[in-house]
Specification:
This protein has about 600 residues and is mostly helical. Helix content is about 50%, strand content about 5%. It is built from 24 helices and eight strands. The strands form three sheets. A four-stranded mixed beta sheet has the order 3-6-8-7, sandwiched between helices. Strands 1-2 form a two-stranded antiparallel ribbon. About 25% of the residues have low confidence.
């Protein structure tokens, strides 16, 4: 457990009244997450005797959120890859709305046809969408006159859903299929749609990304924010605008930098009136939190500096990878995909995907009238439209949130990569879809994507294993508490240098409670702060020189860290050096535990 997780543990264990008072002073940006963790600890027991007992409860929400986010990436990939229709191994398009999910080669047999007919001629007994059963038309009740109206009686089935036997003049025993026909919805393993492969690769790819794994096992809000943004993206593609606004506002209240997903979504859906209203609702919903956190910005983010070359280099690698993975459709001309047209393509227009109805939603039934004399849409065009839609969704999501935050940080240093963890979903979408497009390698050059993926798995595997060790974090609060427990005697003084390192022991009350804190004036709870309020420099000196203070356990940053210039911190260092002997120094992850004693007291 590192220092930020220690803060989560000790804040979430405060009473609700004290927690509310704290959020009015600091950390309002994490307020909703702290309330969630308060409820989690209340249900799970939470290890009231120390964070080590409640570590699983601390991290469980992040693990669950990462699994949910990976599922969301898979859902978005499936939605995007399937936007252009289903494509089998032969590259032929299969339109759900026109064929009921049956592949083209099986339609003739399923429809009871055995020979080609002149263009525009329809065999006797065949039906169009909305046609009533052939048996009704032969009964003389006039039903056949209503067949072209697009109306169906209750219980009628749309074209492509009814068994082939019902559309033939002869009857066939129940459950028997005509010779050579495929069952409705049947898919051979060789015809598995690219959308399913893209969903699998994208979801797994997101889950194995090392930064995603890092925050999946950390008791902070970033995994939950990523899940909210990813599922908001999916709801945007489904045009569920109320749900989109609610989920994205939830993500913004978990961490307000989730609002940077709006520019990425605007690149995709700015033409949609529903999205514009939803975006306005998200901004309005975030406004109260933004007003409170703006007053806390200096206290909250004052420790940050402007982005260094490492930050820009990491962003450059991300941008290069995203641009390399982005598909380049071979079909020229304007985009015809629904997403590419701002989620506003009307049914029946060139921009509406196959299988969309009057509502414009994929999967809705449409009334199709055959137009045998008109030009047929090229089979490659749906795949090209789906590729363009993928670029318009995934590329902005990968590049805009971190890019905008980096640019803002040139003026206001607010950039930390974990604040925009959700942008990695865009990279996973691009990588998963690219891998899904690679079928059975035939030529030597067809192997390179798989060889590259296999080569990357080796360092990713080592990185993933390293992330599960304490060395992957800046420090280890539980290791510090264990070292103090071994060296301190009950009643010894403990000194935090600097004072903000008090967070190392606040999550281990059984250790901290057995020691005296001579520098502390008001506790964190009493002062409505994270680390409490310390005494003045003179008061600290007097407390350390008190005859009752014989041993001091000092908790310090690692060697080489800059010293805090605050007067109180300077007095701590000077008094220990001049009035105490150094007995021992223990190095732990990200900290030093030094034991001081009055002259002659080391033993």
């Amino acid at each position: 457990m590192w220092r930020d997780e220690s803060v989560t543990w000790q804040v979430a264990h405060r009473p609700l009244g004290a927690l509310w008072e704290l959020l009015g002073q600091v950390d309002a940006v994490h307020g909703l997450y702290y309330l969630l963790m308060h409820a989690v600890f209340a249900v799970a027991g939470g290890g009231a005797d120390g964070a080590s007992a409640g570590l699983w409860a601390l991290r469980l929400p992040s693990v669950a959120a990462t699994a949910l986010a990976a599922a969301g990436v898979a859902a978005v990939a499936h939605r995007l890859a399937g936007a252009g229709g289903r494509t089998g191994e032969d590259g032929a398009r299969r339109e759900d709305g026109a064929s009921g999910g049956r592949p083209p080669e099986g339609r003739a047999a399923a429809d009871g046809l055995s020979a080609e007919r002149p263009s525009g001629e329809r065999p006797s007994g065949d039906q169009l969408p909305g046609d009533r059963p052939a048996a009704d038309g032969l009964s003389g009740d006039g039903a056949s006159r209503d067949g072209l109206s697009g109306e169906r009686r209750a219980g009628d089935q749309p074209f492509g859903d009814r068994p082939a036997a019902d559309r033939l003049s002869g009857e066939r025993p129940s459950g028997e299929q005509p010779s050579g026909a495929r069952r409705p919805g049947y898919r051979s393993p060789r015809d598995r749609p690219a959308a399913e492969r893209a969903a699998l690769f994208a979801g797994v790819g997101y889950a194995v990304l090392p930064p995603v794994q890092m925050y999946a096992q950390e008791g902070r809000s970033y995994a939950l924010v990523a899940a909210a943004v990813i599922w908001a993206t999916y709801l945007m593609l489904r045009e569920r605008w109320v749900g989109y606004a609610v989920v994205l506002v939830l993500g913004c209240w978990l961490h307000e930098f989730a609002v940077l997903a709006l520019p990425a979504h605007a690149f995709t859906a700015w033409r949609s009136r529903g999205w514009r209203w939803s975006a306005a609702a998200v901004v309005a919903g975030l406004l109260p939190l933004a007003l409170v956190s703006a007053r806390q910005a200096q206290q909250q983010l004052g420790w940050l500096g402007r982005p260094g070359w490492q930050d820009w280099a990491a962003y450059g690698v991300l941008a290069a990878a995203a641009l390399l993975l982005a598909p380049r459709p071979a079909t020229p001309g304007p985009s015809r995909g629904r997403v590419s047209r701002g989620l506003a393509a009307p049914a029946g227009s060139p921009g509406a995907p196959s299988g969309t109805g009057a509502s414009g939603r994929p999967g809705a039934r449409t009334h199709r009238t055959p137009n045998p004399d008109g030009p047929k849409r090229p089979a490659a065009e749906p795949a090209a439209a789906a590729a363009r839609d993928l670029v318009r969704v995934a590329l902005p999501l990968a590049l805009l949130p971190p890019g905008v935050l980096l640019a803002v940080s040139l003026v206001h240093p607010w950039y930390v990569d974990r604040y925009v963890l959700y942008s990695l979903a865009g990279l996973a979408l691009l990588a998963g879809t690219r891998l899904a497009q690679v079928r059975r390698p035939v030529r030597a050059r067809d192997w390179w994507p798989w060889l590259l993926a296999a080569a990357l798995l080796v360092p990713v595997g080592f990185w993933s294993a390293w992330l599960r060790t304490p060395e992957s974090r800046k420090d280890d609060a539980l290791a510090v508490a264990a070292a103090v427990r071994e060296r301190a005697w009950p009643g010894d003084a403990v000194l935090f240098m600097p004072s903000r390192r008090r967070e190392w022991l606040l999550s281990s009350p059984e250790v901290y409670g057995s020691l005296r804190d001579p520098a502390l004036s008001r506790t964190p709870a009493a002062s409505r702060s994270l680390q409490g309020v310390e005494r003045t420099a003179q008061e600290i000196r007097e407390a350390l020189l008190d005859p009752s203070t014989e041993r001091v356990v000092a908790l310090l940053d690692p060697s080489g860290q800059p010293l805090d210039g605050d007067p109180a911190e300077a007095v701590k260092r000077q008094t220990l050096v001049s009035s105490f002997d150094l007995c021992s120094v223990t190095q732990v992850r990200g900290a030093r535990v030094a034991l001081f004693a009055k002259p002659g007291g080391c033993r």
